[in-house]
């Protein structure tokens, strides 16, 4: 297994090439949790995630042997970009095999960093298999998680956390294949044996939790998840022993909880986190973790690479689920001024109109009537109730939905 010495050596090797990312205190989340909560913002790392750490350590450890042939890797996105950036920095060629379901934005970003991209495989494991086949031609294969030098590179995050906050009591880490948490747990436990390490997974892809339960790496049916960066069907053989020895608990979050965590990070800390990056906050807020009052908790927000369209969908769905978006329709006399009076009532109740659609002349409408469909932004269920009462008091019959 990787040692603290390996991780310290990696820190020296990669520190000129990566960003020491900030550790930011969150008063809002701290108050909600009754603990001192800090965010380790790997969203601000090169290429937008922690992955460049492990890739840089792997490449620099073998730089003299790979200058001509370069490297090859397989990834759904962040590892791809991390390898591409590290290879570009080292001046060597890179090829990345990406599964067919990887996001278009991550494919294009990887190409933008100078790597050749090959699309292959329905699963990450199939993509890895293809990359390993190509590596036989002479390129150095960089595994996304099941590699000692990659693990050591990821472990430098723990060294930074404990340098910035020596009093850290708990670190919560997203888990896919296990490389990130293996490195962090190894370094953190070696430097502070009583620290608690929590692994966070998406409920629909709980491969690490299942592997720990069975005691061996095992393949599961990985469901679709907004946390695509940790959608890994089988935990690594190198990472599993570390999970078994150094990780105190593995906990799960639902898709809705992950989405709500993404929205909370965006609204309260102005941090754009991808689904995988928000999972530590999701499990922290869903009650899966016992946290001592006043303790110091670090959530590793591992990446911020998310497509704009997906971020928009996540925000809207989360707002609706929290009762902060109100949809309704109302029938009005098709006469001048009727719409203005309706909008005046909404304005009086401080509803913020997001969309409005005024329909006339449809088959199900009386000739002299119009239907107005309205979408409002609200403060929550209590505010919705007040808006509904205000409309009713002014004689409007509304239909929700």
Unreliable parts: none
Task: Bin the strand percentage.
Answer: 15-25%
Biggest β-sheet description: 6 strands, mixed
**Overall SS class:** alpha/beta
What's the CATH class label of the largest domain? Alpha Beta
CATH fold node name of the largest domain: Rossmann fold
Shape: elongated
Averaged pLDDT? 93
Enumerate how many helices there are, as a single number: 16
CATH architectural category of the largest domain: 3-Layer(aba) Sandwich
Element pattern in H and E: HEHEHHEHEHEHEHEHEHHEHHEHEHEEHE
Number of domains: 3
Task: Give the total of beta strands.
Answer: 14
Spatial extent as radius of gyration? 25 Å
Estimate percent helicity.
Answer: 40-55%
Could you please describe the fold and organization of this structure?
This protein is an alpha/beta fold and 401 residues long. The strands form three sheets. It has a six-stranded mixed sheet, sandwiched between helices. A four-stranded parallel sheet has the order 5-4-3-6, with helices on both faces. Helix 1 (4-14) packs across helix 3 (51-61) and helix 3 packs across helix 8. The chain is elongated, with a radius of gyration of 25 Å. It has three domains: 4-49 and 148-318, Rossmann fold (3-Layer(aba) Sandwich), CATH 3.40.50.1100; 52-142, Rossmann fold, CATH 3.40.50; 323-400, Alpha-Beta Plaits, CATH 3.30.70.260. The protein contains 16 helices and 14 strands.
What layout of secondary structure does this protein have?
Layout: H1 4-14, E1 23-25, H2 27-33, E2 36-41, H3 51-61, H4 63-66, E3 71-74, H5 78-90, E4 94-98, H6 104-112, E5 116-119, H7 124-135, E6 140-142, H8 148-164, E7 170-174, H9 179-191, E8 196-202, H10 207-214, H11 239-246, E9 249-253, H12 255-269, H13 275-285, E10 296-301, H14 308-321, E11 325-333, H15 338-348, E12 352-360, E13 369-377, H16 381-393, E14 398-400
Parallel strand pairs: 2-10, 3-4, 3-6, 4-5, 7-8, 7-10, 8-9
Antiparallel strand pairs: 1-2, 11-13, 11-14, 12-13
Helix pairs in contact: 1-3, 1-8, 3-5, 3-8, 5-6, 8-9, 9-11, 12-13, 12-14
